[in-house]
Amino acid sequence: MTTSTDKSAALSLRNVSRNFGGIRAVSDISFDVRHGERLTIIGTNGAGKSTLFNLIAGSYPLSAGEISIFGEDVSKQAPSKRAGMGLARTFQTSKLFAGLTARENLFVALHKTNGVQRKSLLANPAKDPALVAESTEALRKVDLLQKADVRVSEFSHGETRQLEVAMALALNPKLLMLDEPAAGISPSERGKLIELLRALDKDISLLLIEHDMAVALAVADHVIVMHDGTMFTQGTPDEIRNSSAVRDLYLGHGHE
Ligand SMILES: Nc1ncnc2c1ncn2[C@@H]1O[C@H](COP(=O)(O)OP(=O)(O)OP(=O)(O)O)[C@@H](O)[C@H]1O
Ligand SMILES: [Mg+2]
Q1: Which CATH superfamily groups domain 1-86+174-256?
Q2: Which-ligand-closest: CA of 232?
Q3: What is the pTM for the complete model shown?
Q4: Could you report the per-residue pLDDT of 119-139, keeping only the tens digit for each?
Q5: Residue 60 CA: which ligand is closest?
Q6: Where are the domains of the chain?
């Protein structure tokens, strides 16, 4: 096992663990995300995927191990410090404001850039040309510009997932983490999401949690399979697609 972090990696985890009381939610996980790499984590319910995101973002402290972002050990750093280094994430459960429009949600996302509060939001963001331009660009990237002034409560589920990606992209991340962006979306919206994720700037390193195998395997360069907090296996999308062990694991847990 590699014991030191890879200084050239966008993200490096070494022997990362997290316990909740007696539950070992994440157990001794080590991997790297290289610059520009698309790494997908799949796994059964309760495997520890979202907990891993919370550990990387700094929302939960580590029980053991080390996490580095762009070569810097952030294991004890606050979430805002990690965000300031270019880390952006979405959540498994939507954090959008349903009563606000898509653009207004983006203004909220943009209220801090690199961890610094932007004063203009407090006055009238719609009159700040920089904020308007940045929100327009983020909406354009996820093909939602035509819905800029529509309230999120009127969005389809797939559109809310697209907007969440836009919220993270608006922060100009260098390392983007998406937690199940395809959860609950329709087949046609799924195709669109795959396109969107594949079209992301290659400078952005992507860590994706995805239950939906089609999305996971279409987007990833490399796949990690988690089970019961541990790394069950890893490989290329083809290796994972053809793995009978992975198929058995999923079938055993009631997945397709
Ligand atoms: N805040 C918490 N407090 C206590 N236990 C937790 C907490 N968060 C997660 N867990 C437990 O840790 C384990 C891993 O949960 P986690 O949400 O990380 O799994 P997951 O792989 O994201 O699952 P899913 O596919 O259902 O989203 C589960 O047993 C869960 O109940
Ligand atoms: Mg989860």
Answers
A1: P-loop containing nucleotide triphosphate hydrolases (3.40.50.300)
A2: 1
A3: 0.91
A4: 655 567 777 888 899 999 999
A5: 1
A6: 1-86+174-256, 94-172
